[in-house]
Amino acid sequence: MALAQNSGLAELTWQDNSNNEDGFKIERNVGSGWMEIAAVGANVTSYDDGSVSAPASEALEYQYRVRAFKGSVNSSSSNDSQAFVLAPTGSLSLTALSSTSIRVNWVDNVGSAAGNGFKIERKNGTNGNWVEIADVLTGTLGNTLSYIDTGVGGSATYIYRVRAYRNSATSVPHFSSYSPEQAIAINVTELQPNVQSPQMIGQEFWVDIAINNAQNLFGISFELKYTNTAFVDVVTPTNSSVVPGAFLGNDVIFISNVDETAGKVNIGVSRKAGQGGISGSGIVARAKFTSTLAAPAGMAIVFSFSTVAANEPSGAVITPALKNATVTLNLDGIIVWPGDTNNDKIVNQADILPIGLHFNKTGPARQNASTSWTPQLATAWTPAAATYADGNGDGVINQSDVLPIGLNWGRTHSSPISGADKAKEDLHLNKITAATLSTAVVGNTNPGQDFYIEIRVDNVTNLFGLAFELLYSPTTYLEAQSAEAGSFLGTDVIFFPNIDKTSGKISLGVTGKAGQSGVNGSGIVARIKMRSLSTAPIGAVTQIKLQNPAANDPAGQAINFSVVNQSLVTDVASQNSSTTPAAFALHPNVPNPFSPLGRGTFGNPSTMIHYDLPASGEVTVEIFDMLGKHVRTLVKQRQAAGRHSVSWDGRDAIGKSVASGVYLYQLRADSPSTGSRQGFLQVKKMSLLR
């Protein structure tokens, strides 16, 4: 017969050697003689005795035997087997010795005379599974036994229990009941990268460097490593994308260095002498990363640490446990901001160009698309840059995609520049042929009169689309009225003007449509109708300046424009134009000298020539060089009496820029008394600088 005892239950098993018995009788002896405690039927070979009880200390021996019976006849009894009911294990006490070791103490209620040892079991948290971790021999009855568990690590709650055991002669274990369970929480100082996963391909994301369960932390340095450096970069400029966290306070010493080739970000952050350490958990540093649109879907980026050093204010070393983090990149979509068609973080005139470049292309429509200024998930088109050009998200790029540009004009967002960079890669936006962009005033700028500022391109090759801003300042003398496309790019174009009279800024975009060819040469791309205000004072000057030109050819390659006419100085007539002058007069040109190439702080691409006519008649205004060679005729027509002005932009009769030097400007007019064309003649000098 074999017997096992487990927590107050004696489990008996035997072999049935008889085929015609009526059953079996079980007998037990607890030191006062044998007593039959149960009978079972034929062919039954086990019995559990649940009536055993444990002593307060050591062990109580129960003896068992079994015999078969038929009627009143009994067989001989089986061999005797002993069950040792062990005293229960008392309460445990737990002590955390370090982040990786826990001491377990308990009182030995069994002693070596009655038991063989104790089984120690542990589980990780309330939902963990019990695991036997050690077997400790019994000692002297009543003494405290101890075991140091070095198998723990990391912040967690560990639960322990202990029970005594004794092996029988047949090595079948006999167990006491378990001790009451005891739990202990280990708070390990850990350094770990925190980052949300998955992340969108082409988007920025922050990696927070967290310290957990720090005790008296004063400073820490480490090397943050990351994988797949061909597709992952730290966002530039790094001084705004690698920054200290809040845990160590605001008054810290912070040093960082980025090695993108090796995939390393070295960071050191420390409090200053005289300051105390900080305990608890928080963010010690942050680093902003981005992935390129070339990154494969499902790619994993692993962030880990090396070369970690930390200390207390006294200089005592802190050794944090290190953890890793993994980010999976997801190419299920691209973040689109409606109106930012080139994904450069701002909605402005340059967003007209991608619409023309991808005009009539189709792709997946955005789900729940709107033109509201919110980030919206879009399935990537081919090429990826076209995804952003579908401003309204309806799946086709056409004139309707201009509407979100107007609705969201001037708005900005913080989505990554990397997406725009990739879009530019798709567009092959490399700087190519240089061309010039200039302004010219057409018409009379007298108070209360309208005139035009023409935007002209020269020496351009294969121009497909152009965007720019024109500023005029101050806004108290001139006012923009309207804008229209010029004829240079043809009549079937996309044209978008935005006039801000308050700030004196006119933003224009004009582009051809996909499938059209680029245009070569020189010509007018836009005209802006301006008005000289009647309230302008004597000698008022308005500066006009072109800025932020962006242009591309039909393949998406950027055309690099140099702005020739960066500012224009306009002289407003000094008197009411309704007052008839008393005599002929040719006034000094303004400004003098002037510089079409923008020489000096502000360029003066043209100069204004003012003259007075006391009576109507034929008038000629001409430009000559100092040798008397004719350069250009500015006016040759009959004009009414009054005060007049005309501008000269430094070009000759065929539109060619003339050289620097001193030039003569001449006024010829009929005499009011004789009607002779030789009645009045006056010449003045002016200087042109290049």
In short:
This protein is mainly beta and 690 residues long. The chain has five helices and 48 strands.
Q: Which key phrases capture this entry?
A:
Immunoglobulin-like, 48 strands, 5 helices, 7-stranded mixed sheet, 690 residues, mainly beta
Describe the protein.
The structure is a single chain. This protein is mainly beta. The protein has six domains: 2-86, Immunoglobulins (Immunoglobulin-like, Sandwich); 93-186, Immunoglobulins (Immunoglobulin-like); 190-330, Immunoglobulin-like, CATH 2.60.40; 338-424, Type 1 dockerin domain (Orthogonal Bundle); 434-571, Immunoglobulin-like, CATH 2.60.40.680; 585-688, Immunoglobulin-like (Sandwich), CATH 2.60.40.4070. Helices cover 4% and strands 48% of the residues. The chain has five helices and 48 strands. A hairpin with a 5-residue loop joins β14 (156-167) and β15.
Helix content: under 10%
Number of domains: 6
CATH topology tier name of the largest domain? Immunoglobulin-like
Largest sheet entry: 8 strands, mixed
Write the layout of secondary structure elements.
Layout: E1 2-6, E2 10-13, E3 23-29, E4 34-41, E5 46-49, E6 59-70, E7 73-74, E8 81-86, E9 93-98, E10 101-107, E11 117-124, E12 131-137, E13 144-149, E14 156-167, E15 173-175, E16 182-186, E17 190-194, E18 199-200, E19 204-217, E20 219-226, E21 232-234, H1 238-241, E22 242-244, E23 253-259, E24 264-270, E25 278-291, E26 300-311, E27 317-318, E28 321-322, E29 325-330, E30 334-336, H2 352-357, E31 376-378, H3 385-389, H4 403-407, H5 417-427, E32 434-442, E33 450-463, E34 465-473, E35 478-485, E36 494-500, E37 505-511, E38 519-532, E39 541-552, E40 560-563, E41 568-571, E42 585-586, E43 607-613, E44 617-625, E45 630-639, E46 642-648, E47 661-669, E48 680-688
Parallel strand pairs: 1-15, 17-28, 18-29, 32-40
Antiparallel strand pairs: 1-2, 2-5, 3-4, 3-6, 6-7, 6-8, 9-10, 10-13, 11-12, 11-14, 14-15, 14-16, 17-19, 19-25, 20-24, 20-26, 21-25, 22-25, 23-24, 26-27, 26-29, 30-31, 32-33, 33-38, 34-37, 34-39, 35-38, 36-37, 39-41, 42-43, 43-46, 44-45, 44-47, 47-48
